[in-house]
Amino acid sequence: xxxxxxxxxxxxxxxxxxxxxxxxxxxxxxxxxxxxxxxxxxxxxxxxxxxxxxxxxxxxxxxxxxxxxxxxxxxxxxxxxxxxxxxxxxxxxxxxxxxxxxxxxxxxxxxxxxxxxxxxxxxxxxxxxxxxxxxxxxxxxxxxxxxxxxxxxxxxxxxxxxxxxxxxxxxxxxxxxxxxxxxxxxxxxxxxxxxxxxxxxxxxxxxxxxxxxxxxxxxxxxxxxxxxxxxxxxxxxxxxxxxxxxxxxxxxxxxxxxxxxxxxxxxxxxxxxxxxxxxxxxxxxxxxxxxxxxxxxxxxxxxxxxxxxxxxxxxxxxxxxxxxxxxxxxxxxxxxxxxxxxxxxxxxxxxxxxxxxxxxxxxxxxxxxxxxxxxxxxxxxxxxxxxxxxxxxxxxxxxxxxxxxxxxxxxxxxxxxxxxxxxxxxxxxxxxxxxxxxxxxxxxxxxxxxxxxxxxxxxxx
Length: 461
Ligand code: SF4
Fold this sequence. Notes:
By secondary structure, this protein is of the alpha/beta class. It has helices at residues 23-38, 62-78, 99-103, 116-126, 168-172, 180-192, 228-242, 261-265, 282-288, 297-307, 326-338, 366-389; strands at 14-19, 42-44, 52-57, 82-86, 109-110, 150-154, 156-157, 176-177, 197-201, 216-219, 222-225, 245-248, 272-274, 312-319, 343-348, 395-402, 411-414, 426-428, 443-452, 455-460. A five-stranded parallel sheet has the order 2-1-3-4-5, sandwiched between helices. Strands 16-17-18-20-19 form a five-stranded mixed barrel. It has a three-stranded parallel sheet with strand order 6-9-12. Helix 3 links the parallel strand 4 and strand 5. Helix 1 crosses helix 4 (116-126) and helix 11 (326-338) runs parallel beside helix 12. The longest helix has 24 residues, at 366-389. The two termini are 37 Å apart. The model is unreliable at 1-10 (pLDDT under 50). It binds iron/sulfur cluster (SF4). Iron/sulfur cluster binds at residues 159, 161-163, 166, 168-169, 203-204, 291. The site of iron/sulfur cluster (SF4) has 10 residues, from helix 5.
């Protein structure tokens, strides 16, 4: 259960909060928690100790649906007053109607994702807000569920694509880009609050601004276009003043992404791209209706590497998509090798209720999907290990995530090549100099001495 610290008066009503799902859901949770705190609600660490519980759900894959439904059940059993929000809240049940309501008819309210206002309306109805002038003192950056030194920055909501395996657009709607001035203002507040790594997230970061025809917005009294390039450049310039990192997630390989790579070479954002490719074979990509499926991804990635040789590419893939032949799968294996994907994740295809892909011909049997996933991971891991080994002997800048006892006995951090939660880490040995200390949220230089699995081992210098 999430445990944000909220200062409040002794008699303030208490809300329990559970945040499940992806970073986009996490930012929704942060908005709700910020609003709760602004209005003077306290948070409770237990269901039983709360006056009401909010569950922010995930509805992406069947395991996530199960976890969300179980959590709602637990909250109902232990507390009884439960408000449900998030992606699962927008899903229909098998016989139509709302899935959450069908499974748990006694929940107080159900909303879809990105619905702070609706959630707060339900909270006001079932747990009227307290009157305490002192509790409006919320930190300027809002309530964050991440450690103090990194934060997710959501730049848009929803998605204009209709990938056949995905039901996110039916839950979150079409793309709505946040005004660029708001995004940059939030970024500055986060840096002011001590954030050293900003992770830009959305469903499709490369599409930022498409919905508003790249409208010119304003920030700091100057015009800035609502467009990926302009956003990344402005974020990078801002981050520079704070000595902080900007990392880009969910970037599709459109031609205009080539323009971002020089910004990486200039040091305005990390030379790291999270590009969810899902497959390599044109026929599979077509069946998936993937964005940028007509692009030549191999050439595109090769070009990126030419422009910025240190670039790290992370991607996710699906093995055993309906109709995938052995030949198409072999194409995927060859792609991962040739594109030298640094960090790859792979799911065995799993049908999601309501997804168009369920109707496609020639489903791949479950065992074969799993077998292909395992074969894929073996190849991807050997590519990744090879690349990690090449770093041995290099000196890298590492952001410290953990350093018990000031790091005298070592700690843990990440280099530009490692996003939090999804990639490996840099395990830090005791510093070379006895006088050197490590602090969470600060950078240290470290000499890489070994590669172990997905991680690197390094000596702080
Ligand atoms: S790009 Fe495709 S997978 Fe991603 S949210 Fe949009 S529809 Fe879903």
